Amino acid sequence: MTNKRTWAPGVAGGGLAMLLALTACGDAGNGEDDNGGELAGETFTVGSKEFTESYVLGYISALLLEDAGAETVDQTGISGTATVRAALESEEIDLYWDYTGTGWVDILGNTTEDLPDDLYQAVAEADEENGIAWLEPANFENTYRIATTESFASEQGLSTMTEAADYINENPDENGLCAASEFINRDDGLPGLEEAYDVDFDAVELDLNLIYPQVGDSCEFGEVFSTDARIEANDLIVLDDDQDFFVPYEGALTLRQETLDEHPAIEELHQPVSEALTDEVVMELNGRVDTGGEDPRDVAEDWLMEQGFID
């Protein structure tokens, strides 16, 4: 697929616009003008959060839109849920991928207790009042987990979070947890985890990309994402969340309802792609970026072409 990429125009507005300009990648991809796609003549600004999976998902959406004839402006790499969500609500971006657990707790302000039986439906219905649509979730779940090195887990006999909590309570000097700022501060992250397992961690705040190699060095434990290929690459073992604290995090595209109403083709384009995005597929795509050093847009394009979703 041939694709032109140009520098995106500056984002208008106040402090949020400046933050977007600092945190987001500033280039745009343009769909072919002559492909006669159902979105020809339209332009969409595609956002993402700042971690690998979010970049890949953002580029998957951008490439689908471009293949349907649209032009896209690249605003991937926005730091933090609050910022990217504010960008969506204020029309700085038109769409981005988020997670049902994040929507339920971090965006809608619910707790991790008494989860509804159908979390996606509950999130979609509640956020509808805010004018935000959640497309049907993809076939993967990327939830928070706590990991440690295989050697440390073997030496101390740790396989579950309860066993880790018991060990830390007996060895309080070995409670270091490498984690990103967002996990440290959100209710479905460290505060809730400590309460659920009656344990205190000594949080070492790091950039998301630095956590994996630092487990076993700067800290005994680390925050990880369940679909991250760096778990295996860094010889880590994920501890079983035996108290079922962590909320389900199904990936889903979010956009303003008015955008979806005006362009229902967006949902039609994403539906088969979402079905094909399994845990195994997403972990492989993440690994090609994080351990293989490939560009996330290239990874997204290769996969979409291999699956026949774009030409």
Structure summarized in a few sentences:
The N terminus is likely disordered.
Task: Describe this entry's structure for a reader.
GO terms for molecular function: transmembrane transporter activity. It comes from Nesterenkonia natronophila. The chain has 311 residues and is of the alpha/beta class. It has 2 domains: 4-141 and 248-306, D-Maltodextrin-Binding Protein, domain 2; 144-238, D-Maltodextrin-Binding Protein, domain 2, CATH 3.40.190.120. The chain is 43% helix and 17% strand. It has 15 helices and 12 strands. The chain has helices at 15-23, 52-67, 81-89, 100-107, 119-128, 150-156, 161-170, 181-185, 190-197, 208-214, 230-233, 257-262, 265-276, 279-290, 296-306; strands at 4-7, 27-30, 43-47, 71-75, 95-99, 132-134, 144-149, 176-179, 202-205, 221-225, 236-238, 251-256. It has a 5-stranded mixed beta sheet. A 4-stranded mixed beta sheet has the order 1-2-4-3. The chain has a 3-stranded antiparallel beta sheet with strand order 5-12-6. Helix 2 links the parallel strand 3 (43-47) and strand 4 (71-75). Helix 2 (52-67) crosses helix 15 (296-306) and helix 4 packs across helix 5 (119-128). It is globular, with a radius of gyration of 20 Å. Residues 1-28 and 30-35 have low confidence and may be disordered.
